[in-house]
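Discussion board: Methods & Data

I've been asked by a reviewer to show the raw model output for two of the constructs in my manuscript, not just the figures. I'm not sure how much to include, so I'm pasting the format here to get opinions. Each protein appears as its amino acid sequence followed by a line of discrete structure tokens. Is this the kind of thing reviewers expect to see in a supplement, or should I convert it first? Here is construct A:
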Amino acid sequence: MAVGEDAHSSIINTLRILEMDALTVQTDDHRLTGAALRKAVDADGDPSSLAAVVATSGTTNAGIVDDLAGVAAVARDHGLWFHVDGAYGGAGLFAPSVRHKYDGVEHADSFVVDPHKWMFAPFDCAALVYRDPSAARSVHTQDASYLDVIHDTGAQDKSAPWNPTDYAYHLTRRARGLPLWFSLAVHGVRAYTEAIEAAIRLARDTAADVRSRPYLELIREPDLSVVLFRRLGWAPERYTRWADRLLADQVAFIPPSAWEGETVARFAFLHPHTPIGLVHEILDRMADD
């Protein structure tokens, strides 16, 4: 399976369970592109050994949206399953200001988004969408005598009730999507658009603030609502001390992160009512420490 170097750890762990190897595509700016993928596949020498390619629409650590259209084209050329991991960033599809970054997502064979992240749903609400659900059903439907009554009601009958147990490996589950449905029904899609756009604006304003401070350095312009930056001259323990003080003073919970082996600071904005004044206070503390 081909993945970008910033693919989520759960993907790599799943490959280990399946006893599959990852073809990790390296890029200069951590964004998986169609050109880089094609070069890596050609260099690998055996495209037939690949089963799928995973692109990310909003990496967890940096919020990077991969070149979905370019990756999709390579997947089509080689007959690979194209999966898009939008667990965190997929909700950005609600925001017109960044919609162009997702061009190509319409070619995905499967797409995952976690509403419990940037869509304000209860924890563990997640959605996996298939282009062709029958492919998932052929893999995940479980056969057992006590399940025959479910299958015999017409698995091939389009009028039969849709059974979610046929589209994932677990059988019993709660109705995790119901709170999301209620929220969408009550508030409407426009409220989600406004909330997500607010977080994106806050990330951009924060990036501008970071650039204006001589003791800070912006690592990359934010694609979505994550801002990575460094405090010049700080060792890892200084970041830890700064984060511990913020938490002890009940100001914010901002644990340090890492970028290319270096300890850095990271904002991840989700709540639409986070005030820019709070951001200023947090960054001011980096000057005083």
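Construct B, same format:
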Amino acid sequence: MSFLRVLEMLGVAVFAISGALAAGRKSLDLVGVVVTATVTAIGGGTLRDLLLDRHPVFWIADTANLWVIFAAALGTVVWSRRWRPPERSLAVADALGLALFTISGAQIAEAAGLGGVVVVIMGTLTGVAGGVIRDVLTAEIPMVMRRGPIYATACIAGIVVYLLLEMAIPREAAALAGMAAIAALRLAAILWDLTVPVFSLPDRRG
């Protein structure tokens, strides 16, 4: 199994867990849990593959992804019934999925021969789109659009780290460093409320 394939499968599993946890917080039934976990896990990769004209999309080409999603979602339900998930478990699962999917998406864009700017965009899109769909389905403002700890910025920074490092060290090591940067930056942002500057227009009424 290739390194890229391992990244993709791990990303699918972790994002499925985050989707299942989000569904549990909204008290959805078992079907709702599986649906939310599935769209969270495949949303970003599906959008990436459609934009890059990759046919069939990754989870149709390899249905093992779906079995990983179902297992991760149902495993999360069983585990949560016996042990209450920590308060920040959703944020941690989302940060790990963000790191794994962002770098795998960037590598797929690289393999398609795209330039650095497009690689950054595709990698970021792969990382955040599934979470956006999850949040919309569970009636939450998507994390990427909330005024709060940095989110998409962590993806961009991690991809830049990856692209710079792969010019000097093996690609796999650069990918791991990029993922570590994304996860660390996202978790640090949650812990210490790190934000990007907010743009707002002055109120000219009156």
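Answer (T.O., handling editor elsewhere):
This is acceptable in a supplement if you add a one-line summary per construct. For B, something like: The two ends are 65 Å apart (CA to CA).
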